[in-house]
């Protein structure tokens, strides 16, 4: 079984089940193309946009928000943004990191 990247799941599961190789940008590399000629990987985003019917502006990879941590740990004992106590474990409360006592659970 091939390891999957999170990018493999962003196309909404429209894959045909073939085990093809892709570069870091999700473009197919190596092997033979649909026309029987070897693929060089230089087809770029234009070929993949044509195949999916997208113009590149509605790429789901650009609409996904990056993950945000909910917890931070530091052995140095940084201070809580609310009470100022030095703690090693802090939780995100909005844009701030606070101790367990100050966190609105």
Q: Based on helices, strands and strand pairing, what is the structural class?
A: little secondary structure
Give me the Rg, rounded: 22 Å
Strand content: 5-15%
| Proportion of residues in helical segments | 10-25%
Spatially, the strands of the biggest sheet line up as 1-2-3
Distance between the termini: 41 Å
Task: Give unreliable regions as ranges.
Answer: none
How many domain modules?
A: 2
Give the biggest beta sheet. 3 strands, antiparallel
Number of helices, where a helix is a run of at least 4 consecutive DSSP H or I residues? 2
Average pLDDT taken over every residue: 73
| Structural shape | elongated
InterPro entries: DUF7573
Pfam family, one: DUF7573
Protein name: DUF7573 domain-containing protein
Q: What features would you describe in this structure?
A:
- The structure is a single chain.
- By secondary structure, this protein is low in regular secondary structure.
- It has two domains: 1-66, no CATH class; 68-105.
- It contains two helices and three strands; from the N terminus they run ααβββ.
- It has helices spanning 44-52, 60-63; strands at 71-73, 89-93, 96-98.
- A three-stranded antiparallel sheet has the order 1-2-3, with no helix packed on it.
- The chain is elongated.
- The model has no long low-confidence stretch (mean pLDDT 73).
């Amino acid at each position: 079984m091939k390891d999957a990247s999170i990018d493999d799941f962003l196309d909404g599961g429209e894959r045909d089940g073939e085990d093809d190789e892709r570069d870091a940008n999700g473009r197919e590399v190596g092997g033979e193309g649909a026309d029987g000629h070897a693929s060089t990987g230089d087809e770029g985003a234009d070929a993949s946009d044509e195949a999916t019917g997208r113009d590149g502006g509605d790429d789901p990879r650009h609409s996904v928000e990056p993950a945000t941590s909910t917890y931070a740990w530091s052995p140095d004992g940084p201070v809580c943004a609310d009470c100022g106590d030095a703690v090693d474990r802090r939780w995100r409360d909005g844009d701030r990191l606070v101790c367990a006592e100050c966190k609105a659970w």
